[in-house]
Amino acid sequence: MANWLLYGAYGYTGQLLVEEAVRRGHRPLLAGRDAAKTAVIAQRHNLDHVVLDLRDSDKLHAIVAGVDLVLHAAGPFIHTSEPMVQACLSGQTHYLDITGEIPVFESIFSYDSHAREQAIALIPGVGFDIVPTDCLGSYVAAQLPQAASLEIAFLALSRASAGTAKSMLEMLGGLSKGSLVRRNGRLVSIPLGQEHKEVTFSNGRTYQVTSIPWGDVATAPFSSGVQNVTAYMSIPLPPGTAAVSPLLTRLMKIAPLRRASSKLIDWVVRGPDEHLQQTARSYIWACARDAAGNRREAWLETVETYRFTAVAGIRAVEKTLEQQPSGALTPSLAFGADFVLDIEGTRRFDTLPASPTAA
Ligand SMILES: NC(=O)c1ccc[n+]([C@@H]2O[C@H](COP(=O)([O-])OP(=O)(O)OC[C@H]3O[C@@H](n4cnc5c(N)ncnc54)[C@H](OP(=O)(O)O)[C@@H]3O)[C@@H](O)[C@H]2O)c1
User: Fold this and answer.
1) Among 219, 256, 277, 353, which residue's CB has the most CB atoms within a 10 Å radius?
2) Is the CB of 76 under 6 A from ligand 1?
3) 195: which residues sit within 8 A by CB, 6+ positions away?
4) Which residues fall within 8 angstroms of residue 203, CB to CB, at 6 or more apart?
């Protein structure tokens, strides 16, 4: 059995990843910065563990050099990915993470040639953000060789964990207006709620979706070469959100306010419970267009987002160890656009199903 490390093992999503890894017969080395919390999860699964603070560079480099792969699950990744990426580059260790943060994707993609020289893969975003949207976007773009634009939308019938909410807060504080779209190859910030449309998902229902700064805005140009990308999510925003969005973003740039919001999130936000994880569904739509007005669209439906992240994260570990890709890669570049179909409970449609499953 391969020798790999799971960092952030006691977080909400880290624990789901540990459970899925064990279910698949893996014995990862578990790591996290808190000694007691790391020990509890390791003992629960009878796994080895190591206490590791990312600021302890010597220890981090020594431990990472001793494993074949790291799956990094401790975020917000804007604060945690860089030291781990550096340790992986110097230790010739594959790096995978579950980020959804655009600056993190951009930073990791800047290490592409370094990763190739070291013959390792750097694959950020092996969770719900961005595996299903990246795979479906690549699938439709590949059917339209001159695709000039890509729209991706999703409906997640679940709720966020504290870590996800804090990562969104960090993203908001880093933006100038509230959302990001890609236009002619450049990231452009727009107020949250400014770009919206209606999308019918494979559950047969039509939803209002709003532009959000989802990872594909950073990654789709690498996956499919498309330079105009908008990602949407079904979120009910009150009227006037576009007008107040720049103010909200400015407030989140104020560090004490951001820290206070982050503490509040820890107190009040709980990820989906076991029942929701097992029963909720997620729906994705992607549409590529070319300059001549041709379009290709497809739909995907899959399991609840955190369940998806646990399963996809561990499948990505397995595929990386089997296939040994190298360079900074999106999931679809690393494993192909059909990778998402490996996740149990996932179906893809080229036309809207005549008898949709109810949401
Ligand atoms: N791609 C996806 O679809 C997807 C899905 C789920 C989650 N995520 C992302 O994954 C991250 C974790 O989410 P979660 O639900 O597990 O959140 P969580 O329950 O809040 O867990 C966060 C984990 O990260 C650790 N951590 C935070 N900052 C750290 C640092 N500077 N050094 C070391 N460890 C640090 C925390 O340790 P302490 O308790 O010691 O602070 C904790 O173990 C978030 O960024 C979230 O957005 C992405």
Assistant:
1) 219
2) yes
3) 179, 181, 210, 211, 230, 232
4) 155, 281, 283, 301, 356, 357, 358, 359
| pLDDT at 236 (0 to 100) | 65
Residue 66, φ and ψ in degrees, nearest 5: -90, 0
Which backbone phi and psi does 126 adopt, to 5 degrees?
-90, 20
Evaluate whether residue 358 is within a structural domain. no
Q: Is the entire prediction scored with pTM above 0.90? A: yes
Confidence of residue 241 (pLDDT cuts 50, 70, 90): low
Residue 170 backbone zone (phi > 0: left; psi -120 to 50: alpha; other: beta): alpha
**What spacing in Å lies between the alpha carbon of 33 and ligand 1's midpoint?**
11
pLDDT digits (tens, 9 = 90+) for 293-352: 999 999 999 999 999 999 999 999 999 999 999 999 999 999 999 999 999 999 999 999
CA distances in angstroms from 130 to 100, 137, 201, 274, 354, listed in the order given: 7, 10, 18, 22, 27
- The pLDDT, as a whole number, for residue 252 is 72
- What SS3 state is found at 101? coil
- CA 125–ligand 1 middle distance (angstroms): 13
CA distance 13 to 22: 14
The domain of 141 spans 131-304+342-349
Verify whether ligand 1 is closer than 6 Å to residue 159 (CB atom).
no
What separation in Å is there between the alpha carbon of 168 and the centre of ligand 1? 12
239/327 same-domain check: no
pLDDT one-digit tens code per residue, 115-162 = 999 999 999 999 999 999 999 999 999 999 899 999 999 998 877 877
Same domain, 175 and 324: no
For the beta carbon of residue 232, count every other beta carbon within 10 angstroms.
Answer: 24
> Are residues 108 and 13 part of one domain?
yes
Of the chain, the end-to-end C-alpha distance in Å amounts to: 39
| CA–CA distance, 8 with 181 (Å, rounded to integer) | 30
In a 10 Å sphere around its CB, with 0-12 CB exposed, 13-18 middle and 19+ buried, how is residue 196 labelled?
middle
Judged against a pLDDT cut of 80, whether residue 174 lies above it is answered with no
CATH (domain of 198): 3.30.360.10
Atom of ligand 1 nearest to the CA of 127: 1
